[in-house]
C-alpha cells in the first residue's frame, strides 16, 4: 500500500468525504446515461409509426444499445485498471452526445441501429462499469451503501426522464427530443468531470493472474449466467412496458406513469437493500432481490386477465413496485457482492466481464418480447416467456456460495475477513530407500547386534568422500547358516577416532552399554539375504547410474564389460 495516512487500520481515503463526492458525481452520470437510453421506450411507438414497422425492429435498436452499453465493459474495465476514469468519461461522453444528435437525423431505421447503438451504447459503456468499480475502491464499511447511491442514479433517470421525454415528444417530436437530451447530458457529464476522482492506489497483487483464476470459479459463472437471464427479463420488460400497457388498453400518460413507478421503486430498492447489506449480507440480499422478478411477472400476467381498466392499472402499479425494487436492489448490490467474492485485484476487469454477460441478455430480451408480440398478436405469451426466464435465473443464482472465494491471489478490502482456505492435503508417504520386509514376513525378536562402521574408500557420485555406511555383522541367532560369515574388508584401513575432537563421555542417566555394541530395532535384526549383505552403497544411498558404474570399474579395474557381447550371448541362449 502506498504512503497514505491510516486511521483505525484503514487508509485515510476510505469512507472519506471525498469518496462520497465521487459517488455523487458518478450517480449524476449514471442518471443521465440510463435516463436518456431508457427514454427510447417513450419514443418507440412514434418511431415505429414513422418508419412503418412493428415493435420488433424498433425494440432491436434498444437491444443493440443496451448490449453495447453493458457489453463494452469488457473493454472499459481493462482500460479503467490502466488509465483511470477521467479519459473514459471524456471520450464516452462525447460519443454519447454525438450519437443522440446523429440519430435525430436518420431517415432509415437501420441507421439508428448504428448511430444510436454505437454512440449511446458503446460510448456510455466506456464509463458505466468503471464508475461502479471506482466507487467500490473508495469505501469499506459503507461500500454497499455507496454503490446504492450510484445505482440510484439509474432509478432517478428512469423515473424523471420518462415524463420529460413524453413532454418532449408531444412538443418537439422524438427527433427534437433527442437533441434536447444531448444538451442535458453534455452539461451533466462536464459537471461530473469536476466531481469524480480516482483514489490513491493500493497494492492489490497481480491483477492479471487473479482475473485468470476468478474466471475459472463456479461463483463467477453462476453470477455471469444468471445475469444473462436477469437482463433478458428486466431489459425486455423495461424496453416495452409502455408499449405493452398501451396495447392492453392503458392510456398513454398512465402507461408512462407505470414506467416512472418502476424507476421510483428501483430507488427505494437500491437504498433499502444496500442499507441492510451489513446486518444481513449483500450476497443473501442479491438472491432475494432476484427472486422478486418471477413474482412481478405473475402480477403483470394477472393484469392482462383483468377487464376493468382501474383494476388493471392497480395491478400494473404493484407490478412496477415489485419489479423496480427487485431490479434496483440487484443492480445496487452487484458491485459489493463482486468485491466480497473475488476481492479488489482487477476489480474493473472482473466487473467488466459481468457487465458483458448482462449485455448479452439485454441483446436478447427486447427483440424476444417484441417479435413474440408481433407473432402472437398479444402480450400474454411474451410475459410468460420472461417469467420463465427469470425463474431459471433464480435457480442458477441461489446455490452460489455466500463466502469469499478461496483464491491464493485474493486481496479483500482492509479489515475484511480472509476467504476460507481449503484443508491441506495429506502429506505424501515417501517410499523407503532401503527394501522393507513384506507384511507376511514375521519379524524376528529384538536383539542387540554389534554394528561395524565401514567407511567407503571411493567417493560418492558428487566427488566428495562418502558417508561411512553402517552394515550389520553376523548374528548367530538370526543369520542364515547357509551363507558364509561376513568380515571386515582387509583392504580398508582401520578406523580410529578423530584426535582433533574432544573425547565424549557417556550420559550418566543412560544404562551402561558395551563399547562396540548397540541396541537396534527389530526391523534391523532381520536376517540379511545374500544380495543385501553384499549390496553396493547404491542400495542404501541412491547415486546416478554413471557414478555406480565408475565405482564398480574402480573396484574391479581388470573387468571390461562388452555390452554387445553380453547381448549377443543372451540372444543365443534364448
Protein model, in words:
This protein has 574 residues and is mainly alpha-helical. It has a domain at 10-397: MFS general substrate transporter like domains (Growth Hormone, Chain: A, Up-down Bundle), CATH 1.20.1250.20. Helix content is 62%, strand content 2%. It has 18 helices and four strands. It has a two-stranded antiparallel ribbon with strand order 1-2. Strands 3-4 form a two-stranded antiparallel ribbon. Strand 1 and strand 2 form a beta hairpin. The chain is globular. Mean pLDDT is 75; it is low at 1-8, 427-441, 451-463, 465-479, 513-533, 535-545 and 557-561.
Radius of gyration: 39 Å
Strand content: under 5%
End-to-end CA span: 74 Å
CATH topology of the domain at 10-397: Growth Hormone, Chain: A
Which bin fits the share of residues in helices? 55-70%
Give the SSE order as H and E letters: EEHHHHHHHHHHHHHHHEEHHH
- Structural class by secondary-structure content: mainly alpha
Poorly predicted regions are: 1-8, 427-441, 451-463, 465-479, 513-533, 535-545, 557-561
CATH architecture of the domain at 10-397: Up-down Bundle
Strand order of the largest sheet: 1-2
Shape descriptor reads globular
Query: What is the total tally of β strands?
Result: 4
Can you summarize the main beta sheet?
A: 2 strands, antiparallel
Give the integer mean of the pLDDT values. Answer: 75
CATH homology group of the domain at 10-397: MFS general substrate transporter like domains
The CATH class designation of the domain at 10-397 is Mainly Alpha
